[in-house]
Amino acid sequence: MGKHARLSPSGAEWWAGCPGGPAFVEGLVSRGLVPARSTSFEAAEGTFAHDVRALCQEYGFDAPDLIGMTGEADGYQFAVTPEMAHAIQPGLDWSRDLGGQRFIEVRVDISPWVPRSFGTSDEVIVKDRTIYVFDFKYGAGVPVSVEENLQLL
After folding, report:
1. Can you tell me the mean pLDDT for 4-8?
2. Any idea what the Cα angle at residue 22 is, between residues 18 and 23, rounded to 5°?
3. Per DSSP, what are the bridge partners of residue 107?
4. CA–CA separation, 25 vs 4, rounded Å?
């Protein structure tokens, strides 16, 4: 859903553990030795699921309403399956039940802590002097914990 910062929160696990990595990769890209951006099928599927969730939030759909809808993410084609809808709907229900003022796919400036950087939050809810930050995870691979999560930190 948009541009990524060089030191994006979603890449924090990598660049915090390998501070020289972003500059090294930029050098390879500028010399044409690696593509500017390539992604796995699983990562693209997660991007598609994020887009479906944002569509539901923006227009008031339930995820099962979109089963069969097709789209593209990072060069791959996808369709909303019953399994995808089943994974998306609980978070939709939770945020809708919570109420409050909601911001969907909002850019967050983190440059006071990470120079020239920003992130995009899937959903931010402000209610009763509390800020709730929602980061939807979908796809295959390594489970992601919220405990000591560098992206969230």
Report:
1. 73
2. 110
3. 120
4. 14
Q: Name the burial class of residue 9, with classes exposed (0-12), middle (13-18) and buried (19+) by CB atoms within 10 angstroms of its CB.
A: buried
Half-sphere exposure of residue 86, counting CA atoms within 13 Å on the CB side?
3
Q: What pLDDT is recorded for position 3?
A: 59
In the Cβ-directed half-sphere of 109, how many Cα atoms lie within 13 Å?
3
**Residue 63 vs residues 12, 50, 108, 117: alpha-carbon distances, Å:** 30, 11, 26, 32
Question: Each residue of 65-77: pLDDT tens digit?
Answer: 999 999 999 889 9
**C-alpha span between 40 and 139 (Å, rounded):** 11
Q: Is the pTM of this model over 0.85?
A: no
**Are the beta carbons of 5 and 119 closer than 8 angstroms?**
yes
- The pLDDT tens digits of the residues spanning 18-39 come to 888 878 877 877 887 777 666 7
CA dist., res. 93 & res. 80, Å (int): 18
Q: What backbone phi and psi angles, to 5 degrees, belong to 141? A: 125, -145
Contact between residue 134 and residue 108 where contact means Cβ atoms under 8 Å apart: no
CA distances from 98 to 62, 91, 92, 93, 113 (A): 16, 11, 10, 8, 30
